[in-house]
Amino acid sequence: MSPLIFAVVVDILLRKLAHRLQDAGMARAFADDTAMVLRNLFASFSTVAQIFEEYSLISGLHLNFGKTIVVPLWREQEKSWYELRRWLVAFGRGWEDVKVANVAKYLGFLVGPGRNEEGWTKAIGKWQSRAKGWSHAAVGLQYAAMLYNTFCASTLYFLAQLEEVPKAILDDELRTTLHMAKGPTAWANSNDLWRMGQQCGVGRSFHCIAARASAAMFRACVFECWEKPLQEELLELNEAARSTEQHDRLVFWDSWYCRAFPRVLLNKRRQIEDDVISMRDIRLRWCPGVDPRAEEAKLRTKLQGLVAAANLQKSLSCWQSRVEWKITRWRIPGNRHRHGRKVVEHLAALGRLVAPRVAAAVWGLVWNRWCTARRFQTHTQCALGCGHGDDSIEHYVCCRVTRAVGRTFLRIQASTEDRCGKMMGWAGYHDEDERRCWAILTYGVYVATNSARRRPPHIQAEREQELSQHCRQASEGHGPTMRCILKRWAS
Predict the structure, then answer these.
(1) Alpha carbon of 359 to those of 200, 273, 446, 478: distances in Å?
(2) Bridge partners of 37?
(3) Residues 263, 361 within the same domain
(4) Of 204, 246, 262, 358, which residue has the fewest beta carbons closer than 10 angstroms?
(5) Is residue 390 part of a domain?
(6) What DSSP character marks residue 355?
(7) What are phi and psi of 255, to 5 degrees?
(8) Which residue, 392, 398, 390, 399, is CA-closest to 460?
(9) CA distance 129 to 133
(10) How far apart are the C-alpha atoms of 99 and 165, rounded to whole Å?
(11) Tens digits of per-residue pLDDT, 297-351?
(12) How confident is the model at residue 20 (pLDDT cuts 50, 70, 90)?
């Protein structure tokens, strides 16, 4: 028999089976994974078993009884599940291996009256173990964020399309991301890591799981091909809740009804469109004057990212006050709000002036991320070998080795009072090249001090040479920085 004739025969037989399923009292059937709802289990079961046997003869696909679960839609107090198990054993023909439980997994999601947050256990384990595994990559903040978003946080987004993210994930999110964003304990909070790409020049930010999960729900509600409109699904759900025979069953299953997928998705879409951004606004912004049908593919690919960005922007705290709080430890004379505004502008400008790794070093200086001895409340000598200071950020800003390299190789210099402002961004610059050079010097100091702690100290001249080499390496792969460095070095 040719494949085409065989396909036609199978299609005809499946249509006949579908009619028999309707006659057997089945309310709904899914062909993919054999999930069904029967109005009367005991009256319809023999017919259903015969249908599965006929289907296995037609297609050669047999039901895996060991993975089949029967979910009774009644409470065990009403009719003992032990009787149902005994009835299945007596029925035989493989059905004695079927499990009876109040919850089952269908296409990765838990369904049934006993549905809870246990479905997230495996995804949470993957998320945390991958973050710990990738934390040893030592690739810098930008690529750490890329690895986290691609291999770690992505393990949660499949379930997040239909399920609310558990509080346990949100509580543990900062600790998990800090595995990737290496630094002293609690050097940054979640808001810092969510916005570092846009406002710190690092190039990429860590994903906010709550914002991404809400966006995934919004996309699933708008673009997924549902069996019927979600509004109709919700009406049927409400009717099922109203027609529940016993009051105690309705109370017992209240959380099940409230967490039903249609209800969760529609509530999430309504919340986002009321508080964040509406589908109409998205279409007007991204499809202006164009037939929406021609832009549908583009909108499908961009929708989740657009909603996630808008959702994140809505929930982020004030950045200005955060920066001001971070620079108070420097005891800067003058207007604190003005200094904070200058630092914000400086960090944002670095995104277009230098490579992300250089911007990350400057941000780490402002945020006290550098792992110096002073940071851990101990005292050791300057790692650059000047012999006139200890291992601390405050010293490296004015260290004689730092001053010599800046003056000799980068052609920049400033008074002792202004050096801190130049490196952190609240002081003025003559032009963009000067701003770029101070950022390069900061990066060189950061890398040189980290490498110096792993080796015995050398003489000052060697440290200056090493620091200048790290400053030169800051320009690798970044054209504007390379041109600036060559011009300064050659002059």
Answers:
(1) 7, 36, 12, 13
(2) 28
(3) no
(4) 246
(5) yes
(6) -
(7) -65, -30
(8) 399
(9) 6
(10) 28
(11) 778 788 888 899 999 988 787 888 899 999 988 888 888 899 999 999 999 999 9
(12) low
pTM, full prediction: 0.85
Phi-psi region of 385 (alpha: psi -120 to 50; beta: other; left: phi over 0): left
DSSP string, 357-378: HHHHHHHHHHTT-S--TGGGT-
H/E stretch holding 36: strand 35-38
The b-or-e profile of 126-164 (16+ CB within 10 A means b, else e) is ebbebbeebbeeeebbbbbbbbbbeebbebbbebbbbbb
Q: Are residues 221 and 304 in the same domain?
A: yes
Q: 79 and 33, same structural domain?
A: yes
Rounded mean pLDDT of the chain?
A: 83
The tokens for 319 are 């950045």
The token pair that represents 464 in the structure block: 């200056």
Domain final position from 83, 118, 153 = 118
Banded model confidence at residue 12, pLDDT cuts 50, 70, 90? very low
The whole-number pLDDT of residue 293 equals 67
Q: Cα separation of 188 and 180, whole Å?
A: 12
Q: Same domain for 424 and 340? A: yes
